[in-house]
Specification:
By secondary structure, the protein is α+β, with helices and mostly antiparallel strands. Helix content is 27%, strand content 38%.
């Protein structure tokens, strides 16, 4: 099973068909070759093996990120 954490588009590289995303504080460049619709700054996307797979709703993304942060906080408290 794969889990994809919502990532926020923070830079667009149209000449490379790529975007830079931020995922819970980590930034990386990923390919947008598989996207048929254009991406914009602050869009939330799901990524699989370095490719943007789809754009997701901002509210849904923020709710998912809050749950991930809660899980991380609980794991850190246990250690």
């Amino acid at each position: 099973m794969c889990l994809s954490i919502p990532s926020k588009v923070v830079a667009i590289h149209p000449d490379e068909q790529a975007v830079t995303v931020e995922t819970m504080g980590v930034k990386r460049k990923v390919s947008s070759h598989l996207m048929s619709e254009p991406l914009a700054m602050d869009d939330y996307v799901l990524i699989h093996i370095g490719f943007v797979m789809n754009k997701i709703d901002k509210v849904d993304a923020e709710q998912s990120l809050a749950l991930y942060r809660e899980i991380v906080d609980k794991m850190e408290q246990e250690h």
